[in-house]
Predict the structure.
Amino acid sequence: MHIPVKVDYAVRALVDLSRHNGDKPVHATQVAQRMAMPEPYLDHILHTLSKNGFTKTLRGPMGGHTLAMDPGDIKLSMVMAAFNETETIVGCLENTASCTLSDDCSQRNIWQTVEEAVNTILERTTIADLLKPTISIPVESPRKVTQSI
């Protein structure tokens, strides 16, 4: 699974807003500088985050961005979905008709297990988790996949 730059930037922006969520809104310029992002691209990211209810945007000289949700309620899976980045790790998992070998494929179960593990981590991890110095997300042991060759 590929994590696009826009999702990476969105997560970094949410973490930064969480760290600096005080009495007044945070300017995009400040977030861009702290997170080493191009500000014009960050503006698009912040617009999408606001449109999806993660942040609030206040216009004007005293304006900026604030969180609209508690960081503990923002799951990484939600951020991925907000940017329409929920594609499968390999195309045949979503559309078995796209692969002529899907009925007889020895790799399909492995890729499905990998995808399930990634999705589990994204569903369990919140922005609040990323505020901690170290993070350890327990992952259930993947189901044992047996293959016959």
